[in-house]
Design a protein that fits this description.
Helix content: 25-40%
Strand order of the largest sheet: 3-2-4-1-10-9-11-15
Number of strands: 25
Number of helices: 17
CATH topology of the largest domain: Glutamine Phosphoribosylpyrophosphate, subunit 1, domain 1
Largest sheet: 8 strands, antiparallel
Number of domains: 3
Mean pLDDT: 94
CATH architecture of the largest domain: 4-Layer Sandwich
Low-confidence stretches: none
CATH class of the largest domain: Alpha Beta
Bound molecules: fructose -6-phosphate
Length: 602
Amino acid sequence: MCGIVGYIGSNNVKKALLEGLKELEYRGYDSAGLAVMQEGRIDVFKAVGKLNNLVDKTAAFDPKGFAVGIAHTRWATHGKPTEINAHPHRGDHSFVVHNGIIENYKSLKDSLIEKGVRFISQTDTEVIVHLYESFLAQTKEAFRAFELTIGAIEGAYAILLIDETVGKTIFFAKKGSPLQIGEGTSWRYFASSDAPLIGVCESAIYLDDGSWGYMNDRDIKIFVGNATVSPQKKPLPLTRSAAQKEGFRFFMEKEIYEQSRAVGETLTSRALANVVRLDELQEGFLDGVESLRLCACGTSYHAALSSSYLFERLAKIETRCEIASEFRYRDPILRKNELFIVISQSGETADTLEALKMAKRSGSKTLAICNVDNSSISREADAALLTRAGVEKGVASTKAFSTQVTVLWLLALYIAQNSGALNAEDLAREINAMRRVPSVLAIKPERHEHIRRLSKRYLHGHGFFFIGRDLFYPLALEGALKLKEISYLHAEGYPAGEMKHGPIALADPELFTIALISKNLLKDKMQSNVEELIARDSTLLAISSERLALADDLIEIDEQDHPLLEFFEMTTVIQLLALEIAIRLGTDVDMPRNLAKSVTVE
Ligand code: F6R
């Protein structure tokens, strides 16, 4: 959600900023902007819409030699996505870019307006630059003015600020939003994720919350409070394996196809012939754990919910699931001996991160299941299990979901293995099934073509209900989320057995029901629920390994002997169905409207 890049050096500053933003664009794409400072003069460019518009706007701008630059790609929180609201925001002589939300901006803005300051945008960000300039007018000392500014603002932020009257310096601050520093041979970067740094910097410094300071052409000074911090550098990969679509129409499509390989990676050296190994968990990490609390947002929450069936069924351990944004504000009671597990693709989701901090404060042991090493969530938790999905570019999560469910299944088996909840034979059977997931996830061209052809019948109607039972209920939720976020059609996921308690009132030929029918779990119950809908003339698309006499359409999956193998195969089906419907409707599949890849505001 929003992306930040900063640069100090003598290479092509414009290229550095725009290429950095390109790596971050999928995180927010309603406007973008950059400011370049050379010899005490700052040039600023902003454009509404995708980054290409900023590229066009800066086509004739050709800065040469040493320069300082800051840039931003925005996902609007305060104020519409207009050019005026795009970052960088300006004062009289300084410019700022910011990710996050300044929660007390209204009172700060009111008091600045009283002092005669004129605001031009509707953003919370603009207050930072005016506050800084008003402190500077009092203190006559830029560093002190920046320190006072950081002291006055509340909320979550990653901030870069440059000032014509200071030159050659970027002031920075980080609290609750990601920010890291990259160092190359003769240049330095700031970025809100690793992506812009890879291939251009050898090492990165991951700033802790509460860090602030400055960077100039000679020095980096980092403080937490008043204390100077010696930065810990971590090496970065040398090459940017720039995500390419590799012949696919969209990143999302490529990532659906990548799931087989990604889950193979997830399982490597973890699912051995008769035993599960999780080397990341220190010996004794699970000692004393009596129950689990899983907490996440969106698709990651659906992975959590899916796994809650596995933890209870396989590991016989009590498990509760929480939506992070709800958990944070309902005064939850955290039990002693409960392991608090957060699940996040990006590792930066604000609500999940805050829930994790709450759990830590209350003394819980914490575990992150995350796709991004060195992300805030991976670093904050007591231990982390990486999902190894690789970079996910499509805003709609696909391979992150399948790898998360795989790690959670691994964890359920690991707990069962340690506690003896599964005997050796059942454990071996589970592991054997798990090792077949990569082949089940491989997309068959004829299956994809069938879904593509079928999708044309599902472009209208007054809504979609994805229904399932047991494990297939969270998958139904995920199917509905995938469809609505990229096609903008209304879709709901529902437990099939609940339809008769209300939603069945909607049933008619224009209500499209997508039924996830497992052969291995509650098949007869599910069929009865489906027949109740057919009896009310709802249009029914069955996803199943068996024909269903009265279904309007069928997407046939292979016959599997384990429910999770059906689960993973159906996962690809619901993803492809959403993709093909969205493509027919002509939406921007990889960057759907109003969304961003990483939700770093609450
Ligand atoms: C949906 C989607 C989102 C994310 C959610 C959590 O396709 O991608 O619902 O799952 O924003 O994000 P992470 O997993 O990064 O914490």
